[in-house]
Design a protein that fits this description.
39% of the residues lie in helices and 15% in strands. The protein is α/β, with parallel strands linked by helices. The strands form three sheets. Strands 7, 8, 9, 10, 11 and 12 form a six-stranded mixed β-sheet that branches. Helix 4 links the parallel strand 5 and strand 6.
Length: 307
């Protein structure tokens, strides 16, 4: 049974902790911050661009790094060597979201004195997120705890499905994953929207998040707009929401006129494919069908944007 775990992915860290194995974590990524107690662990990665950049500046910097075949993040190899992990959790989903699999493989092959197992997660759907939890639990020798966790998560999902079983009104919703340039949330988000009783627009379930033009949003004219930039807190998104307010036709959008523009914590919820993806589903249900659902996430996980 692995005793020393390094997680280079926030969602993986949350999976380990939800399985009751936090005491086996010996290292984390620079972005792993939940539960708060993991923040005392040694940090094993760092971003290759400075803090405080705007959405547009981050986009430019990331594209420059990738164009030059450079990593957006760097593994702190000396730290990994000192920690001597049995298992390292990483991802192959997105080069922009966390340390990449090749980066981890190179770091381990050059710096470890013993073999370490790499678990690389690459979910594109809700089922794949749940399967990743099962996989991690199995590798870490916690299959029973994994089954219980999955049972609890599935029960919460089924409660929403059951309550909306005969709901005919399914408002259209644009989930904005990036503000400059504009991106609409793909992967598991359209599926979550559908389960929560909405109709996702401009993105397909299981497909990567697409870039869109502002005119696409205007033409679609969704009933609801949810801003949930990847890696951004509610406060961070609020600081850049002006990027949308000044766009032509914003005030005429259906969602704006009906006061149904919302901001969610994309960093803590929607963009982390771990156990709290079900919290994200509950947030969507609260936003899309407020008369049917109150899970207590308003004010923390999401807010209505005061226009």
């Amino acid at each position: 049974m692995p005793e020393r775990i390094v997680s280079l992915l926030p969602a993986a860290t949350e999976i380990v902790c939800a399985l009751g194995l936090e005491d086996r974590l010996v290292g984390r990524s620079h972005e792993c911050d939940y539960p708060e107690t993991v923040q005392q662990l040694p940090v094993c990665s760092e971003a290759n661009f400075p803090d405080g950049l705007s959405s547009a500046e981050i986009d430019v910097k990331v594209k420059e790094l990738l164009a030059d075949a450079l990593s957006v993040y760097t593994v702190k190899r000396d730290v990994i060597k000192d920690l001597q992990p049995d298992v390292v959790l990483t991802q192959a989903q997105c080069e922009v979201c966390a340390v990449s699999l090749p980066e981890v493989e190179q770091a381990l092959s050059d710096y470890l004195d013993k073999p370490a197992q790499i678990i690389s997660l690459q979910p594109n759907s809700l089922d794949e997120i749940l399967n990743d939890i099962k996989q991690v639990a199995g590798v870490l020798g916690a299959a029973d705890k994994g089954e219980q966790l999955l049972e609890d998560l599935t029960e919460r999902i089924d409660i929403i499905r059951h309550k909306l079983k005969f709901m005919e009104v399914k408002p259209s919703i644009a989930c904005v994953e990036w503000l400059e340039p504009l991106m609409i949330s793909g992967n598991w988000i359209p599926e979550l929207v559908s389960i929560a009783g909405g109709t996702p627009v401009l993105a397909q379930a299981g497909k990567h998040s697409p870039y869109v033009e502002w005119n696409d949003i205007v033409a679609t004219d969704p009933d609801i707009i949810l801003l949930m930039p990847c890696g951004f807190s509610i406060e961070r998104t609020m600081s850049e929401v002006g990027l949308l307010l000044g766009r032509p036709g914003f005030a005429e959008l259906k969602a704006v006129k009906s006061n149904r523009v919302y901001i969610a914590d994309g960093n803590q919820y929607f963009n982390r494919p771990g156990p709290r993806i079900v919290d994200s589903l509950e947030i969507l249900a609260e936003i899309i069908h407020p008369k049917q659902f109150i899970f207590g996430n308003e004010g923390n996980g999401w807010v209505k944007f005061a226009l």
